[in-house]
Amino acid sequence: MARKVIIDVDPGIDDAMALCMALSNPELDVLAVTAVGGNVAPAQATRNVQAIIEQLDPSRWPRLGAASEPDNRLAVDRRSLYGADGLGGAGFVVAERQHLLPSEKVICDQVRDAPHSVTLIALGPLTNIARAFLRDPELPSLVGRIVIMGGTVAGPGNITPAAEFNMYCDPIAAQTVFRSLSTKTLIPLDVTNRIELSYDLFNRLPSESTRVGRLMRKLLPAAFRGYRQQFGLEGIHVHDSVTLAAVVHPELFTMKSMAGDVETQGELTAGATVFDRRRVPAWRHNMEVAVDVQRDAVVEAILHDLCAVE
Ligand code: BDR
Ligand code: CA
Fold first, then answer.
1. 145: helix, coil or strand?
2. For ligand 1, which residues put their CB under 6 angstroms from it?
3. Domains of the chain by range and CATH?
4. Nearest CA to ligand 1 atom 10
5. pLDDT tens across 84-142, in order?
6. Helix, strand, or coil (residue 2)
7. Predicted structure pTM score
């Protein structure tokens, strides 16, 4: 039976790519795609989710959730990486929808409908998931698993020297989720940074006659431009696609049980993830963390999953 998932995204071109992989994969039953502010502001994130789903037009549409303003957001400008609209200026026009429910409500409803069997895949700041947990305090124990893209264990951050972007955007939400009594898997930057996709990717994409092929060809050039201009790289990192790959192909990742928390206040360290890696740790393990990855196999898995179905 296909695995039930909810994907929480802040598109972002790598979020869009992860959605392409997920919605093409018969092993996943995508119940809902919920928007969260991050790479772009909440209203734009909601429009981008709609645009991506409309472009892909999957045989069964997931529920969609609308992003709202976070309570504790730290200001971050991500426009240089994915463009002002998060999708490299693709200019999609979306159908006007009056009645999109807030993302946290969609998450609560879907998890309540299928207790203990939904995997929440968090590819943006943890605002929605923290709100869902505050709204329904039983929810953490009803979620099957949360797989989170974010944080770092030993490496540097990517938005400040200490913090990874998704954690930094809403560290209080991240801390709420880290401390919740849910089953968690973290795919940190230390691991996602090891995967780099080169221009060769364009030769491997599905043809232009497919929806995924068309969408990826429209979005990816801006990502390559952004990575070259901002980081001097000829390839791109696809943190969210690596995280999706960890859900579908867990055998390609080495996991370790760890005790993690999030710094919410530091002048230099807000949003930093902290792990108790002392010889004799005092904190209790609260998540599985990816510590290694079969790099080439994950690249192949991403390309394969992107190309799997029209
Ligand atoms: C994360 O930050 C965002 O810009 C990406 O979409 C990804 O989820 C990587 O730090
Ligand atoms: Ca993201």
1. strand
2. 12, 14-15, 39, 78, 123-124, 149, 158, 164-166, 189, 239-240
3. 3-308 (3.90.245.10)
4. 165
5. 899 999 889 888 777 899 999 999 999 999 999 999 999 999 999 999 999 999 999 99
6. coil
7. 0.97
